[in-house]
UniProtKB/TrEMBL annotation:
A Pfam entry, by short name: G_glu_transpept
Gene Ontology biological-process entries: glutathione biosynthetic process; glutathione catabolic process
Organism the protein comes from: Pseudaminobacter soli (ex Zhang et al. 2022)
PANTHER family in UniProt: GLUTATHIONE HYDROLASE, GLUTATHIONE HYDROLASE PROENZYME
Signal peptide: 1-22
Post-translational modification: Cleaved by autocatalysis into a large and a small subunit.
UniProt subunit comment: This enzyme consists of two polypeptide chains, which are synthesized in precursor form from a single polypeptide.
Keyword Secreted attributed: no
Name recorded for this polypeptide: Glutathione hydrolase proenzyme
Native organism taxonomy: Bacteria, Pseudomonadati, Pseudomonadota, Alphaproteobacteria, Hyphomicrobiales
Gene3D superfamilies: 1.10.246.130, 3.60.20.40
């Protein structure tokens, strides 16, 4: 991602009219990065933080009209489908955590492999795993989308406004058009595969093959028609009938890499309610998404492992990076071995998050020296033994939405089409399809043993998405956090939680802190930030350090005694706004 996209001033200019509704707080405390691109936003009643100003504004309007956090989430998601199409939409999947004031519920709208999928799906004719983009581009990587059914399920349970009302903001933008943002334009410029799809080319690019410029008013009548049908008939309009037929045809007609999704696969799609994974971190209760995401467990593990250290006294810097990176190594070693779809794999959730187990893992670490490559542990209460799993890279195809409504109910939702622009397939119905199936391990076995996250028909690929909700010592809602970033989501969210809970940083400063961590490889520091200056000290503890781009998109809303404070990652175009 190019630094230029971090132009949050532009993002703020786009949203200036709606910021009138919320107050911008006094200048945020000096960020340790020295990069104060945005200020925290405060609001008395409610707040939405999302990756695009138009999407956040749609959510704010729904909240102002008396909608619930879930109503606002539906509106934000559908607008994101238009204005941030590279990241999420109805052709993808999502995880949603909902706090209703007394109970936390999580819904799994993860994409699912077609029934016909087999473990060798991403193996080439040479018996080796396919190159990543050979697998991604085309129908082979497309999972049955979960987002439409997820939105409908959540709204039926927790919505207050009519279904058509929460769809209306996106419908209006699809019909009247919206302006192409600098980030979308920039990503279209870098994109190598999208133009091979004729519908996507016509929608996003000019005749000469350059992306439609920033500020172009883009209309999407096909998506408007789709939204109308969904408004009339509910998500059934997506999972059967002409939209479903269009998805199946789009997946199946790719000339070199067709998929095998059927109408039956779509008809059978189900949202799963899961028990959220929760654990204590100091006085706070931190809750996240259960498998098939690895995000919730890995973050609880990291926090549990560093809990014995006085991170509050350390402040952001080499020492804190050492401990969090070491905790990341241990968490990612377990993640690789144990995590997969719980319908197919016995994930020892209780053992992996058991405080005694985490203490025993923490005991492996020392202040002076990195442990290097960590091995998976032996969590208690474990029924089955596994496995292996390769790691993934950094993607752009995800977005996070944090919302708190006037009743103090909250949504933390991370939503994805996996890679930037997904499978690079645009349906005639006006939306892009995901490539989520490449979140499965390509190799079905390693050293003769099956891989937990191998492809299987009807299975959900392992995720790293980590929508998170934090409660304070009194059990009251305290923070709503999450981020895109592929497997980097785990260190991004862990960093933000430590910044909020240990360093007591303002949410905007917390999200903008340099990113860092380890996924059980090198210790990674965010290039172009003050973290570069920490490198030598961290290397002195035996870490192999890599400076890399760490393009998070963290959205954080914190509930305080005097109202809400929100921060949206300065690395992207998002804003936090409220009433
Ligand atoms: N597909 C990834 C996952 O579910 C997220 C990709 C991203 O964050 O860009 O973990």
């Amino acid at each position: 991602m190019k630094r230029g996209f971090r132009s949050s001033l532009l993002a703020l200019a786009l949203v200036a009219p709606c910021l009138a509704q919320a107050q911008t707080a006094a200048p945020a405390p000096e960020a340790p990065t020295g990069r104060i691109a945005k200020h925290s936003t405060t609001a008395n009643q409610d707040m939405v933080a999302a990756a695009n100003p138009l999407a956040a504004e749609a959510g704010r309007q729904i909240l102002a009209a008396g909608g619930s956090a879930v109503d606002a989430a539906v509106a934000v998601q559908l607008v994101l489908n238009l204005v941030e199409p590279q990241s999420s939409g109805i052709g993808g999947g999502a995880f949603l955590l909902y706090w209703d004031g007394t109970k936390l519920t999580s819904l799994d709208g993860r994409e699912t492999a077609p029934a016909a999928a087999t473990p060798d799906r991403f193996m080439g004719p040479d018996g080796k795993p396919m190159a990543f983009y050979d697998a991604v581009v085309g129908g082979r990587s497309v999972g049955v989308p979960g987002t439409p059914r997820l939105l409908e399920t959540a709204r039926k349970r927790w919505g207050k406004l009519p279904w058509a009302d929460v769809i209306a903001p996106a419908l209006k933008l699809a019909e009247d058009g919206f302006t192409i943002s600098p980030r979308l334009n920039g990503l279209l410029g870098q994109e190598k595969f999208l133009q091979s799809d004729a519908l996507a080319r016509a929608y996003f690019y000019q005749e000469d093959g350059t992306p439609k410029p920033v500020g172009t008013v883009l209309k999407n009548p096909a998506f408007a028609k789709t939204l109308r049908e969904i408004a009339d008939k509910g998500a059934d309009a997506f999972y059967s009938g002409s939209i479903a037929a269009d998805i199946v045809a789009t997946v199946g007609r790719h000339p070199t890499n067709p998929g095998d999704m059927t109408l039956d696969d779509l008809k059978r799609y189900k949202v799963e309610e899961r028990e959220p994974v929760c654990g204590m971190y100091r006085v706070y209760r931190v809750c996240g998404m259960a498998p098939p995401s690895s995000g919730g467990i890995a973050i609880l593990q990291m926090l549990g492992i560093v809990e014995g250290q006085d991170l509050g006294a350390m402040k952001p810097g080499p020492e804190a990076v050492h401990w969090l990176a070491e905790a990341g190594r241990l968490a990612f070693a377990d993640r690789a071995l144990f995590l997969g779809d719980p319908a197919f794999v016995d994930v020892p959730v209780r053992g992996l998050t058991d405080p005694g187990y985490l203490k025993s893992r923490a005991a492996l670490l020392g202040a002076g020296r990195s442990i290097g490559k960590a091995k998976a542990g032996e969590p208690p209460f474990q029924k089955t033994e596994f496995f292996f799993a390769p790691s993934e890279g950094i993607e752009f195809g995800t977005s996070h939405i944090s919302i708190v409504d006037r009743e103090g109910h909250a949504v933390s939702m991370t939503t994805t089409i996996e890679d930037g622009f997904g499978a690079r397939l645009m349906t005639r119905s006006g939306f892009l399809l995901n490539n989520e199936l490449t979140d499965f391990s390509f190799a079905p076995t390693e050293e003769g043993r099956p891989v937990a996250n191998r492809v299987e028909g009807g299975k959900r690929p392992r995720s790293s998405m980590a929508p998170t909700i934090v409660f304070d010592a009194a059990g009251k809602l305290y923070a709503v956090v999450g981020s895109p970033g592929g497997s980097q989501i785990i260190p991004y969210v862990a960093k933000t939680l430590v910044a909020l809970l240990d360093w007591k940083l303002d949410p905007q400063v917390a999200v903008d802190l340099p990113n860092f961590g380890s996924r059980n490889g090198p210790t990674e520091l965010e290039a172009g930030t003050e973290a570069e200056g920490w490198k030598l000290e961290i290397e002195a503890k035996g870490h192999e350090v890599k400076l890399i781009d760490m393009n998070s998109g963290i959205q954080a809303v914190v509930v305080g005694a005097d109202g809400l404070t929100g921060g949206a990652d300065s690395r992207r175009e998002g804003v936090a706004i409220g009433n």
